[in-house]
Amino acid sequence: MEKKLRRSKDQMIAGVCAGIAEYMGLDTTLVRVGYVLLSILSAGFPGTLLYIILWLVMPKSY
After folding, report:
1. What pairs with residue 60 in β-bridges?
2. Which UniProt keywords apply (predicted)?
3. How large is the greatest C-alpha to C-alpha distance in the chain, in angstroms?
């Protein structure tokens, strides 16, 4: 079966981090913490823009 990148129903905001975690087979909390750290430590918070773009582009899981 082919894995597809989708937003997860296990969501805190939009399910983007949980969807990435499910796709990669990682713990959801690790992906969320990694995302927050990457966003805070990078200049200008490009992670927020990336999250919004992924929210709009990634289909919902049914």
Report:
1. 7
2. Cell membrane, Membrane, Transmembrane, Transmembrane helix
3. 39
Identify how many contiguous H helices and E strands the chain contains and give both numbers: 3, 0
Question: Which tokens sit at 21?
Answer: 């975690």
Number of domains comprising the chain: 1
Are 5 and 20 in contact by the 8 Å Cβ rule? The answer is yes
Q: Where are the beta strands (DSSP E) in 11-55?
A: none
> Residue 36 sits in which domain range?
1-62
Convert the pLDDT of each residue in 3-54 to its tens digit.
888 888 888 889 999 999 999 999 999 999 999 888 888 876 788 888 899 9
